[in-house]
Amino acid sequence: MAVDPIEKKPLAMFRPGARLLSTGPPGCNLSCSHCQNWQSSQGAPPTVFRTPEELAEVAVKSSDGIAFTYTEPVVWYEYVMDTAPIVRTLGGIAVMVSNGFVNPEPLKRLLTVTDAWNVDLKAWSDDFYRRNCGGNVQPVLETLKTIARSGVHLEVTYLVIPGENDSEWDWDRAALWLAANCGENTPVHVSRYFPGYRQTRPATPVECVFRAARVFNAHMKNVFPGNV
Ligand code: SF4
């Protein structure tokens, strides 16, 4: 657990200046080659159990609410469903940082107890999701649409990995789709990758991140270069 600025989630256009108790039990439903938190997402480090009531109390005493992050919060769905409403009852906010790989019904229930989401759109192609993450893109697109239509605040992160998801055509398609399905005002974080876990490609050149941001910016109004 750590108290982080909300901008670090990243959420750029929701409660700026807020600080959130950030937590993530082990586990993920994807297995990204570049995972920065792979020890937790793919392994089982030692943890300390907090009841939903205990965690909610710590969250509102130490910060403005809670962020379920670091690993994949939808795999501890029941815990989020139990904890987020208590945080909100105590006056805090509840934020999800997710890969978006979740079925529609649990997603709809999660949206009733949370205030804001940052969802990864890891690439425009199924091929990337299959090779690098063990998933596919369509469920993520459905999640993005559902959140955008729910009224819950949505931001999107696109991590640019050189040689993997750095085609300008793909960036353009992704931005066009986001504008049409989530709205052109949805904030997009175009982020710089660093090698880690099983991914050994060198870090994204800063120029490439800004080039991607310009391409997204042709269709989306709020584009934020990240990790630069
Ligand atoms: S979805 Fe996120 S937490 Fe899960 S493996 Fe991929 S990068 Fe790691």
CATH class: Alpha Beta
Counted beta strands: 8
Low-confidence spans:
none
Strand order of the largest sheet: 1-2-3-4-5-6-7-8
Bound molecules: iron/sulfur cluster
Sheet with the most strands, sense and barrel status: 8 strands, mixed
Describe the structure.
The chain has one domain (2-226): TIM Barrel. The chain has 8 helices and 8 strands. The protein has helices spanning 38-41, 52-62, 77-89, 104-111, 126-133, 138-150, 168-181, 206-217; strands at 2-5, 19-23, 65-68, 93-98, 116-120, 153-160, 188-192, 223-226. The protein has an 8-stranded mixed β-sheet. The site of iron/sulfur cluster (SF4) has 11 residues, from loops. Iron/sulfur cluster binds at residues 28, 30-32, 35, 37, 41, 71-72, 99, 133.
Distinctive features:
eight-stranded mixed sheet, binds iron/sulfur cluster, alpha/beta, TIM Barrel, 228 residues, 8 helices
Itemize the secondary structure elements and their pairings.
Blueprint: E1 2-5, E2 19-23, H1 38-41, H2 52-62, E3 65-68, H3 77-89, E4 93-98, H4 104-111, E5 116-120, H5 126-133, H6 138-150, E6 153-160, H7 168-181, E7 188-192, H8 206-217, E8 223-226
Helix pairs in contact: 2-3, 4-6, 7-8
Bound molecules: iron/sulfur cluster.
How is this structure best summarized?
With 228 residues, this protein is of the alpha/beta class. The chain has helices at residues 38-41, 52-62, 77-89, 104-111, 126-133, 138-150, 168-181, 206-217, and strands at residues 2-5, 19-23, 65-68, 93-98, 116-120, 153-160, 188-192, 223-226.
